[in-house]
Prior knowledge:
Strand content: 5-15%
CATH architecture of the domain at 19-75 and 108-136: 3-Layer(aba) Sandwich
Structural class: alpha/beta
Shape: globular
CATH superfamily of the domain at 19-75 and 108-136: Response regulator
Low-confidence stretches: none
Mean pLDDT: 90
Amino acid sequence: xxxxxxxxxxxxxxxxxxxxxxxxxxxxxxxxxxxxxxxxxxxxxxxxxxxxxxxxxxxxxxxxxxxxxxxxxxxxxxxxxxxxxxxxxxxxxxxxxxxxxxxxxxxxxxxxxxxxxxxxxxxxxxxxxxxxxxxxx
Length: 137
């Protein structure tokens, strides 16, 4: 497998990034978690471009899969937000930020979109489907 790095620094560069991927004939796309691509409009556009190019797409956020991406595996954002609330509470009660422990995500979610899989002509292995936290029909 060869990894081809393609960058889009602004929303207007996303179309060009997919044009580059088409020229280099990549077999799939890993969309890194980035606030620029986290909104519905950007996520839908990326998913549509991936489908148009016949590219399986993998994301760090499950919402991208709900909007048409193939699959995601990443930290559970709702769990992280709940944990942040505990930090805020401790800070309001006088804790020094420097004294609070650094935490990493402990809960990760796998989301798979079967509709997108079918559109790409892919079969998701049953074992992977069984391990998924959410399967979108």
